[in-house]
Design a protein that fits this description.
Layout (H helix, E strand, L loop, with lengths): L9 H4 L15 H17 L12 H13 L4 H19 L27 H10 L3 H13 L3 H5 L6 E2 L4 E4 L10 E4 L3 H11 L23 H11 L2 E5 L7 E3 L2 E4 L4 E3 L4 E5 L3 H13 L4 H8 L5 H5 L5 H13 L24
Antiparallel strand pairs: 1-2, 2-3, 4-8, 5-6, 6-7
This protein binds zinc ion.
């Protein structure tokens, strides 16, 4: 058994290092999640935090932040690194016996630049027309209509759709925040698409599957997304070396500036991301008169911060407000020539 003390290495906290006692660390389901989160980041963090957990100080964490910023890492990525590390510490601290004697104080989160990518209806229609495959068209339309997350869509099973009720149900556990929710499909086109996706499939099969393969569910939909976005003008491929646009060739890409023919790993995608659909879906709902509360229920947002973060306000609300502001005075009393016409006469001594 592990003794409360000062002997744990940071790498052992969430069982990510193979050293020492880590092997004997029994992980709870939450522990496994933290471990996965930290695992992918540990490669770059381990040089910095290769020490005993008790030796980690706030200064040390700050130094890590500065080092990451010097390397040009995005604030959002640094925040994710630190939050995974913090969770690992917290798990170790909250266990009995404690695996660390105290939690280090973590510095405040860095400001993140929230993406403001919205996909307008016309842009979406273009994107949709360039989408290939029934599964991908359905995925796009579901994402843009209800704001489903990519993971939720890819994990969706045939049995979650009811063609009689015209509903899609997301069960507890299938969603990111572990809350069940369901949506009603009104659009006939979308309804037919989903129905077509279910055709000839068993109830426990994935709703979205590549048509030409019998095999496995889709793990990665990014290829399809990139291709459709590039064709629809919502994204482009750039050269990893010089960051300049590349032209598509028969078997890859070509960079004018570097004069090289490039393959998949030498280019990077720059443009709209799938999550933009989710943001846009929420905005569309609210702008089209769905209340914030219902929009949150449909999209599965737990807090209304999404509305603040992206400044989403219903057009109808703004119009209503503008009318009310203007209605304060029956007719406009302002004109460019005179100060105020028929202005309220102030009586002396009544200021
Ligand atoms: Zn280049």
């Amino acid at each position: 058994m592990l003794v409360a003390g000062r002997r744990e290495y940071v790498g052992c906290l969430a069982g990510i290092s193979s050293a020492g006692s880590a092997a004997s660390l029994r992980l709870t389901s939450r522990g496994v999640k933290v471990r996965k989160q930290l695992d992918s980041k540990w490669e770059r963090m381990k040089r910095h935090f290769d020490c005993r957990a008790s030796a980690v100080s706030t200064d040390m964490i700050r130094k890590y932040v500065i080092e990451c910023q010097k390397k040009g890492m995005a604030n959002a990525s640094i925040n994710r690194d630190l939050s995974a590390l913090k969770k690992a510490f917290s798990l170790a601290y909250k266990s009995t016996p404690r695996k660390i004697a105290a939690m280090p104080v973590f510095p405040k989160k860095l400001d993140e630049n929230a993406r403001h990518g919205f996909i307008e209806q016309a842009e979406f229609d273009k994107l949709y027309s360039h989408a290939e495959g029934l599964w991908f068209k359905t995925m796009l339309l579901l994402g843009y209509t209800f704001g489903f997350r990519r993971g939720e869509l890819l994990a969706m099973k045939v049995e979650q759709f009811s063609s009689v009720e015209r509903t899609i149900r997301l069960w507890r556990g299938a969603t990111k925040n572990k809350r069940a929710r369901h949506v009603l499909i009104e659009d006939e086109g979308l309804y037919q698409l989903v129905r077509a996706c279910c055709e000839g499939k068993k109830t426990n099969e994935p709703l979205l599957k590549r048509e030409n393969t019998l095999s496995a569910p889709i793990v990665d939909s990014r290829e399809s997304w990139y291709r459709a976005c590039v064709r629809a003008g919502l994204g482009k491929f750039v050269c990893l070396e010089c960051k300049k646009d590349v032209t598509e060739t028969e078997d890859g890409w070509h960079c004018e500036k570097c004069g090289n023919d490039l393959i998949k790993h030498q280019v990077t995608y720059d443009g709209a991301i799938f999550h933009d659909l989710r943001r846009s879906a929420v905005r569309n709902m609210v702008c089209r008169g769905v209340s914030e509360k219902v929009a949150m229920e449909i999209s599965g947002h737990l807090t209304r911060s999404v509305f603040d973060r992206y400044d989403i306000t219903a057009d109808s609300d703004l119009r209503e407000a503008a009318k009310k502001i203007a209605a304060g005075r029956e007719t406009s009393v302002y004109s460019p020539n005179v100060g105020v016409q028929n202005g309220v006469q102030r009586q002396s001594g009544n200021a």
